[in-house]
Every structure is written in structure tokens, then in C-alpha cells.
Amino acid sequence: xxxxxxxDVFAGLKPEIHKVDGAAKYYSSGEIKKYSVVxxxxxxxxxxxxxxxxxxxxxxxxxxxxxxDANFLAIEYIKEGSVFFRQNGQAYLAEKGDVCxxxxxxVNEIMTGVNGHCAKSSVVIVGxxxxxxxxxxxxxxxxMLESVDTGHFETILDILEKLxxxxxxxxxxxxxxxAYEIIQxxxxxxxxxxxxxxxxxxxxxxxxxxEQKLTLDIMAEKCGCSVPHLIRxxxxxxxxxxxxxxxxxxxxxxxxxxxxKLLSVKEVACHVGYQNQLNFxxxxxxxxxxSPKQYRKSKxxx
Length: 302
Description:
Blueprint: E1 2-3, E2 16-21, E3 24-29, E4 32-39, E5 50-59, E6 64-68, E7 73-87, E8 90-95, E9 99-102, E10 107-112, E11 118-126, H1 130-137, E12 144-145, H2 150-163, H3 169-191, H4 197-208, H5 216-223, H6 227-238, H7 242-260, H8 265-271, H9 277-288, H10 292-297
Antiparallel strand pairs: 1-8, 2-3, 3-6, 4-5, 5-11, 6-10, 7-8, 7-9, 7-10, 7-11, 9-12
Helix pairs in contact: 2-3
């Protein structure tokens, strides 16, 4: 996730309006390559929070969606590629593993990102207690999240889809409870309540020494634990291995350097810990689906 310095990527762009629902307006343009939707049973009157709809989408190169004053929360989980996301004037580049929170009552937009490709899953949360839940959890002022427990999140989406055809009272109770659990998952990751201090310190060490050769032994020593315990800590807290987290940090820092610094690709590779430019370019393209030079030509200011 990168906060954009400005919103130039959205400049002069406004998709065509395609739906008006009360005070809410929805605009959309561009292609959705693949699309599936799971509609849940109607929310019972007793339910204060409800999982309403699940979407799975693969966005085309020029897809752009904007909404105004919608009365629901849309949680957008980026599975592949990237999107530009703007909410109340602040713009971001959301990448694989990031989560965008499209809040109710706001102006928010999503547009296909720098590599012209994005696969995402979305869940719509509704209910009378939605806004108070967002306020009390601290999420009301949060636009973007990274390092969310996506494994747990995807498991809940799978369960919701299986419950979508069950109209019984027991299933309705589960659907309502899972809406609360989804909010709790993302709130927990935002507050970092369960991440040990020593692990947070290790992450800062990794960011500060990203150009160094960081082995599992070095990371475990810095964290004050054994290598097997270190691997468990990363799995439990980030659903990633230590090397996957390090690679993710390096790729995101490389992307930032490519578009903000007058460095050659070889120099960028060295800055993020790669002595071999070919290895760096291979890993970068695997992560972004673009070569470093192609990414730089996109001229994204991050």
C-alpha cells in the first residue's frame, strides 16, 4: 500500500453514471473480465450487522468505478495486481494483499492499477450498527490496511458462500456473527493488538536494513527466538513466511524508488538487497506483472 502524493492519476476522469439509488449514485466505466456475485438472504430485522453480498472480479485495464453516499461498507481485498483507490480526496496505490475500506457516506473510487490488471474479492457489510461499529473499532478513519489475516478472511468468505442458500434461523445467526467477525479481523490488524513488540521491532529492522543480506538466522536472533518459532510468528501474525514478507518489502520499496528517484534499475536493485539485476527484474515482474522499466514508464507518483 502506498499513499499517493497527489490524485493526478484520477485527474479529468469521471466514469458515466449507471445507477441512482436514493441519495446514492454509482458511476462505472471500463471492462470487468470476470465477474461472480453471491447474494445473501435478506437481513432479518433483529440483525444489527449483516454480510449482504460477495463479489469476485477480475478488472480490465481501464476499469473505473466511483460511488457517492452509499449506505454500506465495501471491503475490497486485492488478490492479484493493483488498484488506485481514492476516498474523500486521498489517493492510494493498493497492491496484492492490501485491503481497501470503502466507507458509507463517502465519495470513493477504484481504478485498475499500474499493471492494468487486478483480481479482487469484495464483501458488502450493512446494518443499523455499522457506523457505530466502525467508530468504536477505530476503523471509521481508516482507508487502507496491509498485512491483514487474509487466510482467515478468505475462509470466512467461503463459509458465507456456503451459507448463502440456507434460509434457516441458524444460518441467519451465523451470517450476522460472521459480519462482526470480519470487522474484528480488519480492526485487529489495524491496531496491531496481537502482534508482539519484538516482531514489530524486527519489521522496522528489516525495513531499515533492506539492502542487507538478511538470513533467517539473523532475523531470528534480532527477534530473540529460534528460527522455527520465527516462522510460526510470521505465519500466525501475517500469514506469510519471513522471506515472503522481506520480498514484499523489497518489491514495494523498489517500486517507490523507480518512480521517485533518478536511479538506474541496477542501482535500485542494490538499494533493495539484490546484487544481481536479472534476479531482481525477475522477482519484480513476478510481483507486479511489469518489468522495472515498464513500471517506471507508468509514471505513477507514490
